[in-house]
């Protein structure tokens, strides 16, 4: 499905009405960081999953990896929540950042 240029322009106008330029930069930076963390986690998870035949060891390693991933993500999720609370009073239908939590 092709993206209509008009839709992109209108979406950018709507966003600029709700977010200050500083908030936009901060939001984009945090979302990029979360995406980078998720990508690195997925790569490491795949590596660990194929690294050993010992199911018990693999399960422990994957659990440790999940815990580390959550610890790295948590500060960004908390910051996104604060940012959302600051900018969302201006929006009638708030969007939750809960889908970013894993």
Characterize this entry briefly:
With 102 residues, the protein is mainly alpha-helical. The protein has three helices and no strands.
Description of the molecule:
- It is a single chain.
- The chain is mostly helical.
- It has one domain.
- 75% of the residues lie in helices and 0% in strands.
- It is built from 3 helices and no strands.
Order of helices and strands: HHH
Shape: elongated
Number of domains: 1
Number of discrete helical segments: 3
> How would you sum up the major sheet?
none
Helix content: over 70%
Structural class from helices and strands? mainly alpha
By oligomeric state, this entry counts as single chain
Distance between the termini: 29 Å
Strand content: under 5%
Give the low-pLDDT segments.
8-16
- In round numbers, the mean pLDDT is 79
Q: Compute the number of strand runs.
A: 0
| Backbone CA Rg | 18 Å
């Amino acid at each position: 499905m092709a993206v209509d240029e008009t839709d992109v322009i209108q979406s950018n106008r709507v966003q600029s009405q709700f977010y200050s330029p500083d908030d936009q930069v901060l939001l984009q930076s945090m979302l990029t960081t979360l995406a980078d963390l998720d990508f690195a986690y997925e790569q490491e998870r795949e590596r660990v999953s194929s690294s050993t035949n010992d199911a018990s060891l693999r399960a422990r390693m994957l659990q440790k990896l999940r815990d580390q991933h959550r610890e790295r993500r948590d500060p960004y999720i908390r910051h996104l929540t604060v940012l959302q609370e600051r900018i969302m009073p201006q929006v009638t239908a708030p969007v939750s950042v809960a889908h970013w939590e894993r």
